[in-house]
Design brief:
The structure holds 2 protein chains of 2 kinds. By secondary structure, chain A is mainly α. Chain A is about 65% helix and about 0% strand. In chain A, helix 1 packs antiparallel against helix 4, helix 2 runs antiparallel to helix 3 and helix 3 packs antiparallel against helix 4. The two termini of chain A are about 25 Å apart. The radius of gyration of chain B is 26 Å and the shape is elongated. The chains are: A mainly alpha, B alpha/beta.
Chain lengths: ~110, ~325
């Protein structure tokens, strides 16, 4: 996960519900927890723990869309299905998808209002 | 027991959300805040099954992919239990294989929403499921109630009588059944017209509901005949209840014909506790009917117990 040159560090993703007062508090909670989740996914990838990676990706897929981040859900879905197809082989196969998801999550965390 | 009111309850319908993800619980709680429902959270399949059995929510929103007891197992458990079978279930799931959808619908879910969900769609699907559930409950209730009098109807009586009779045979609890028939009802209809006759039937129903005890089951048996099931009641005690009903009918005045009193005859049969012979439920009804006939023969406006006329001999013969 070290090819930072390909990641525009100033990229920002905002929730579709960013202006919705009903959602302000929930978005804060979601984004607060997103950072640690990203860290857990990266360490699971390094340790080759496919189950843990799958579990977190599945959770993010299920919830991110509901919090106004359909792109993050879609990226998490690609990891989930990538893992299903990898069937226990090396996790290298999904590295690009993981990078993409991590980028989007970090862009969302930067974009919090 | 008086028949239940037909109005939908004032309480908000309870919706049970079953999902292992805290995110989803928070999100739905916020998004459904303005809906007319009460949301209850379950984080595991086991918790969900237990809650559904104890509290019968109006709707279950069920995630399929959960660690431990997964959504399919919850679904099977709910559908295998007659007490939870009728609770509608909407699946909220990230699983997108057509096979899972087919399995879920085969197991009896009413709807299937894939995550991440579109919130407006989720709201309208929940409303639709709750509306349907309310209508079905209302229909089920109406199907057991007599339209004119508001008492339980004959169909409900048949089912309930078998249940109470069976309970008596298993546990030897006391049990009494009374049949009540209005005296000379035809002449009320002929003299004052059918609306007056209907008013008498409704008035009698009101007296039954007022004078019977909370646990008694008052039913319209047919025409001008009524049945009262008195669970856990000996024939002696039932006689007191029936006498009170008879007296209340005799004392009532009728706005459409104040000059004309109405009376009724009642026949009852019961067992004070364990019985030597095992009499079929139909045998009891025949014996009660004989007692009713004896009350009519004896001059009407009276309560006759099967014991008094030896109709229980007929009961024994039917055994």
């Amino acid at each position: 996960m070290d090819d930072a040159s390909s990641r525009p560090a100033d990229r920002v993703v905002r929730s579709e519900f960013a202006g919705d007062p009903d959602m302000a508090e929930l978005l804060t909670l979601f984004l607060d927890e997103l950072g640690p989740r990203v860290a857990s996914m990266e360490s699971a990838w390094r340790e080759g723990d496919a189950d843990q990676l799958h579990r977190i990706a599945h959770q993010i897929k299920g919830s991110a869309g509901g919090y106004g981040y359909p792109g993050i859900s879609a990226a998490a879905f690609r990891i989930e299905s990538g893992l299903a197809h990898a069937g226990g082989r090396s996790l290298d196969a999904i590295k690009a998808e993981l990078n993409n998801l991590v980028d989007l999550c970090q862009a969302a965390i930067r974009g919090r209002s | 027991m008086t028949a239940p009111a037909l109005q939908p309850g004032e309480a908000k319908p309870v919706v049970l959300l079953v999902d292992d993800s805290q995110d989803v619980h928070r999100l739905l709680r916020a998004r459904l805040r303005n809906e007319d429902l009460e949301l209850v959270d379950a984080y595991t399949g086991g918790e969900a099954i237990e809650y559904a059995r104890d509290h019968h929510p109006a709707l279950v929103l069920l995630d399929l992919n959960m660690p431990g007891t997964d959504g399919f197992e919850v679904l099977r458990a709910l559908k295998d239990d007659p007490t939870t079978l009728e609770i509608p279930v909407i699946v909220l799931s990230g699983l997108q294989s057509p096979h899972d959808k087919v399995t879920a619908f085969d197991l009896g879910v009413v709807d299937y929403i894939t995550k991440p969900f579109e919130l407006t769609e989720l709201r309208v699907r929940i409303r639709s499921a709750l509306r349907m559930h309310r209508l079905l409950q209302m229909l089920a209730k109406r199907a057991r109630i007599d339209g004119l009098t508001g008492l339980w109807n004959r169909a409900y009586f048949n089912q309930r009588w078998e249940e109470e009779h069976g309970r008596h045979q298993r546990h030897s609890h006391p049990l009494t059944i009374a049949l009540l028939d209005l005296d000379h009802f035809k002449s009320i209809n002929d003299t004052y017209g059918h609306p007056a006759g209907d008013a008498v039937l409704q008035g009698l129903a009101a007296i039954l509901q007022r004078e019977a005890r909370a646990a008694d089951i008052a039913c319209r048996y047919g025409g001008e005949e009524f049945a009262l099931i008195l669970p856990d009641t000996t024939p002696e005690n039932a006689q007191v209840v029936c006498e009170r009903i008879r007296a209340a009918v005799e004392a009532a005045t009728w706005p459409r014909h104040p000059e004309r009193r109405v009376t009724c005859s009642i026949g009852l049969v019961g067992a004070p506790g364990p019985t030597e012979t095992c009499v079929a439920s139909g045998g009891w009804l025949e014996a009660a009917d004989r007692a009713l006939y004896a009350a009519k023969k004896g001059g009407r406006n009276r309560v006759v117990s099967a014991t008094a006329i030896g109709a229980e001999a007929a009961l024994d013969a039917a055994a």
